[in-house]
Amino acid sequence: QVQLVESGGGLVQAGGSLRLSCPASGRTFSNYAMGWFRQAPGKEREFVATIAWTGYTYYADSVKGRFTISRDNAKNTVYLQMNSLKPEDTAVYSCAARLDGAVATLQKHYDDWGQGTQVTVSS
User: Fold this and answer.
1) What CA–CA distance (Å, rounded) separates 123 from 88?
2) Closest of 117, 96, 119 to residue 108, by C-alpha
């Protein structure tokens, strides 16, 4: 099992930025793919971004060009830089680890999940 603890959420005005972090502990982090998902109240959890063990990244169309996923293997941490935030970005953001190592957009392909951090964007 990989333990994940997200942080960095908060309240921000539209157009602002936040940087989420998700340090991991457990098995070798560098071999995992990592992902970010989000869930707004009353809505299904949706894919946001993923990064493979190679560093290859893939994004949901809704955040492409605004969000950047990155990883620092030395710190066992994955990040989500969120720029040009919109009210519709308001959600609980969760990070997830995929032992397979390849990028994935489906929740079922991830093995371990963090508890989530709240991001609220005001208009």
Assistant:
1) 10
2) 96
